[in-house]
């Protein structure tokens, strides 16, 4: 268990189970954006069958296929490390399957209902068809100004209940399925967007990092990222 | 080439029409011709595949990585006995498979690379003597979707084939689970250590256990267990069921090619080629569909390598010559998968300190990935312009599927 309190510890949760869509990239992005500002940080991978330390500052959960997602949910529910951490105010970021696992329940394509971790007021059922493609989301002003760009690939239709709010509204793509996208409650934030989402959306990365360090972070100039955002968002206008 | 006279008239007509279309397509510069030819044949005679395969020894090769190489190795090995027809161009959809069978109706052997999605469809029609199952990992996430579904489809496919030998990589959990349903499995330990895609057991969804002392051994509480290998590859040494070890000594580099060779040799032996003879044939391969050989271009010696997913990169990174500059070309077209998120699962950090150019249609996605890997890279979307911008000398050019095809075609034109 990490004891070095001078560093920000970023938990990469079950990279071996929930890591299908380049999800470790989100942890890499968070870590580097801290380091580049002179804030020491490290990624702590927590693999299946290892206990999840409740002492980390930030937890990142990624995507996975049905079986893997059910396995992860069962494991994390029992382990309860993330839930304890969230209770004391740690930041949790979930992507795709991670969003569904953080919710109260999700139904896999075989019709089985699984309990989630209950950190978000979200229930997910299989949608009518698989949603695959580029997504553009206008975030709720509390969570950012710049449009979010990402790639979605999921079957789930998620509904956000009164104890959470959507991360934003879909301008292109499917998201939760009702024009809303993602969910936030306190410092728990989740989205369907891959890309990875934090690589494509530095403002969102810095929002959650601001929650961790306790103050807003000054912007970082990274020309490649600006160019990537222009390319991805220009495609939207071209359509 | 003649059209065998014992084929039904409908199939003969379909083949003739397909060949005409293929020739036209090649002449008009629209492509290799095999796809359009196959499409026409299938339309004119829906049973063409059955008819064309009848009476021949057909071997199918499938899996995520290594299909084209293994298909080439196996056809070379079988050529030691008799003529072979094959889709060496990598056209591995039903059209391409049909075109390969139609291209030479006299060859007693057919070695056919088949796209994972179409294995059951093709196998049902050609009644294969053998199927080679290489590996299953994430590839084209948005297209193929769930590899676990592919595993289930493979499983029910091989279960139905009572007389087919299934030569399978027992170090790949998903492949082993599928091939265990076969009545005639031949197990090859390829020494594969890529496990990121098989953490949850394909049979029961629980976590697969890896033996703490022996990293090759694995099992699951549901009873799925790593099969005992008949063939074992250990570094460059391949030991067959008779216990005799042979050095592979391939001209092709890397562990992945040694694994492909082990599976090819095991299969060739099943079909009746004596191992030393098969090995001699496989050793003579120096390039696979434009890969591995050095091509002169504008004062550079360009080595083109294909890596289209994290498992492929895992095998490709160790092949790179230390010190040589690297051009990486990434596209995200339909055939590549539209989502290039997988780039974040490749340990590009290992390229730190090298000269690297991010290229291809998704050069910017790659440039961002490399920035976060703290690799000092520039970007140039055109891979050959990227090569030109480097000092004269050797260049490693690694590309994913459609980028690779484009680079190869342009290098071929430049020759
Ligand atoms: Zn199992």
Automatic annotation (TrEMBL), chain A:
<comment type="subunit">
    <text>Forms a heterodimer with MurT.</text>
</comment>
<comment type="similarity">
    <text>Belongs to the CobB/CobQ family. GatD subfamily.</text>
</comment>
<keyword id="KW-0315">Glutamine amidotransferase</keyword>
<keyword id="KW-0133">Cell shape</keyword>
<dbReference type="InterPro" id="IPR011698">
    <property type="entry name" value="GATase_3"/>
</dbReference>
<dbReference type="GO" id="GO:0071555">
    <property type="term" value="P:cell wall organization"/>
</dbReference>
<protein>
    <recommendedName>
        <fullName>Lipid II isoglutaminyl synthase (glutamine-hydrolyzing) subunit GatD</fullName>
        <ecNumber>6.3.5.13</ecNumber>
        <ecNumber>3.5.1.2</ecNumber>
    </recommendedName>
</protein>
<dbReference type="GO" id="GO:0009252">
    <property type="term" value="P:peptidoglycan biosynthetic process"/>
</dbReference>
<dbReference type="InterPro" id="IPR043702">
    <property type="entry name" value="Lipid_II_synth_GatD"/>
</dbReference>
<dbReference type="GO" id="GO:0004359">
    <property type="term" value="F:glutaminase activity"/>
</dbReference>
<dbReference type="InterPro" id="IPR033949">
    <property type="entry name" value="CobQ_GATase1"/>
</dbReference>
<keyword id="KW-0573">Peptidoglycan synthesis</keyword>
<dbReference type="Pfam" id="PF07685">
    <property type="entry name" value="GATase_3"/>
</dbReference>
<dbReference type="GO" id="GO:0008360">
    <property type="term" value="P:regulation of cell shape"/>
</dbReference>
<feature type="active site">
    <location>
        <position position="194"/>
    </location>
</feature>
<keyword id="KW-0378">Hydrolase</keyword>
<comment type="function">
    <text>The lipid II isoglutaminyl synthase complex catalyzes the formation of alpha-D-isoglutamine in the cell wall lipid II stem peptide. The GatD subunit catalyzes the hydrolysis of glutamine to glutamate and ammonia. The resulting ammonia molecule is channeled to the active site of MurT.</text>
</comment>
<keyword id="KW-0436">Ligase</keyword>
<comment type="pathway">
    <text>Cell wall biogenesis; peptidoglycan biosynthesis.</text>
</comment>
<dbReference type="GO" id="GO:0009236">
    <property type="term" value="P:cobalamin biosynthetic process"/>
</dbReference>
<feature type="domain" description="CobB/CobQ-like glutamine amidotransferase">
    <location>
        <begin position="10"/>
        <end position="201"/>
    </location>
</feature>
<feature type="active site" description="Nucleophile">
    <location>
        <position position="96"/>
    </location>
</feature>
<keyword id="KW-0961">Cell wall biogenesis/degradation</keyword>
<feature type="binding site">
    <location>
        <position position="130"/>
    </location>
    <ligand>
        <name>substrate</name>
    </ligand>
</feature>
<dbReference type="GO" id="GO:0140282">
    <property type="term" value="F:carbon-nitrogen ligase activity on lipid II"/>
</dbReference>
<feature type="region of interest" description="Disordered">
    <location>
        <begin position="154"/>
        <end position="181"/>
    </location>
</feature>
<dbReference type="InterPro" id="IPR029062">
    <property type="entry name" value="Class_I_gatase-like"/>
</dbReference>
């Amino acid at each position: 268990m990490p004891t070095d309190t001078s560093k920000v510890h970023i938990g990469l949760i079950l990279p071996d189970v929930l890591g299908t869509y380049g999800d470790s990239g989100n942890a890499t992005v968070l870590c580097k954006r801290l380091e580049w500002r002179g804030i020491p940080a490290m990624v702590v991978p927590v693999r299946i069958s290892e206990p999840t330390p409740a002492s980390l500052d930030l937890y990142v959960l990624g995507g996975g296929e049905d079986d893997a997602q059910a396995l992860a949910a069962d494991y994390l529910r029992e382990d309860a490390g993330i839930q304890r951490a969230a209770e004391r105010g740690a930041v949790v970021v979930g992507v795709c399957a991670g969003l569904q696992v953080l919710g109260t329940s999700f139904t896999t394509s075989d019709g089985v209902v699984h309990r989630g971790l209950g950190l978000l007021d979200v229930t997910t059922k299989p949608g009518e068809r698989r949603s695959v493609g580029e997504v553009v989301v206008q975030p709720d002003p509390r969570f950012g100004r710049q449009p979010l760009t990402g790639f979605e690939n999921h079957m789930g239709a998620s509904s956000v209940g009164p104890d959470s709010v959507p991360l934003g509204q879909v301008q292109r793509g499917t998201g939760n399925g009702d024009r809303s996208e993602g969910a936030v409650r306190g410092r728990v934030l989740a989205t369907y967007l891959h890309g990875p989402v934090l690589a494509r959306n530095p403002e969102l990365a810095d929002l959650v990092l601001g929650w961790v360090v306790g103050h807003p972070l000054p912007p970082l100039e990274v020309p490649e990222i600006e160019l990537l955002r222009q390319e991805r968002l220009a495609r939207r206008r071209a359509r | 080439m003649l059209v065998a006279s014992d084929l039904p008239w409908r199939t003969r007509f379909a083949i003739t029409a397909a060949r005409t279309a293929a020739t036209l397509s090649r002449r008009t510069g629209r492509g290799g011709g095999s796809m359009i030819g196959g499409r026409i044949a299938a339309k004119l005679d829906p049973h063409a595949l059955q008819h064309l395969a009848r009476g021949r020894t057909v071997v199918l090769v499938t899996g995520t990585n290594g299909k084209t190489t293994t298909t080439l190795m196996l056809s070379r090995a079988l050529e030691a006995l008799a003529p072979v027809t094959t889709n060496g161009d990598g056209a591995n959809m039903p059209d391409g498979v049909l075109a390969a069978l139609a291209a030479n109706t006299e060859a007693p052997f057919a070695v056919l690379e088949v796209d994972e999605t179409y294995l059951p469809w093709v196998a049902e029609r050609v009644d294969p003597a053998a199927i080679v199952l290489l590996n299953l990992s994430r590839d084209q996430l948005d297209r193929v979707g769930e590899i676990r579904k592919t595993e289930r489809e493979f499983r029910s496919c091989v279960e139905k084939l009572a007389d087919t030998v299934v030569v399978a990589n027992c170090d790949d959990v998903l492949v082993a689970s599928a091939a265990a349903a076969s009545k005639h499995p031949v197990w090859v330990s390829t020494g594969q250590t890529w496990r990121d895609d098989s953490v949850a057991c394909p049979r029961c969804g629980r976590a697969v256990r890896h033996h703490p002392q022996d990293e090759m051994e694995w099992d699951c509480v549901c009873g799925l267990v790593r099969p005992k290998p008949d063939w074992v590859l250990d570094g460059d040494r391949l030991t067959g069921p008779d216990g005799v070890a042979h050095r592979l000594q391939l001209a092709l580099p890397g562990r992945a090619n040694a694994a492909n060779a082990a599976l090819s040799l095991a299969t060739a032996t099943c079909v009746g080629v004596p191992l030393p003879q098969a090995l001699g044939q496989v050793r003579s391969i120096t390039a696979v569909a434009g890969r591995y050989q050095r091509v002169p271009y504008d004062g550079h010696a360009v080595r083109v390598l294909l890596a289209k997913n994290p498992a492929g990169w895992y095998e490709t990174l160790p092949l790179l010559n230390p010190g040589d500059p690297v051009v990486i070309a990434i596209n995200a077209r339909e055939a590549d998968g539209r989502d290039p998120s997988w780039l974040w699962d490749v340990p590009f950090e290992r390229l730190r300190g090298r000269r690297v150019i991010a290229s291809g249609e998704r050069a910017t996605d790659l440039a961002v990935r490399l920035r976060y890997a703290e690799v000092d890279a520039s970007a140039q979307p055109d891979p050959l312009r990227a090569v030109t911008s480097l000092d004269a000398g050797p260049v490693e050019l690694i590309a994913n599927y459609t980028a690779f095809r484009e680079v190869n075609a342009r290098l071929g034109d430049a020759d």
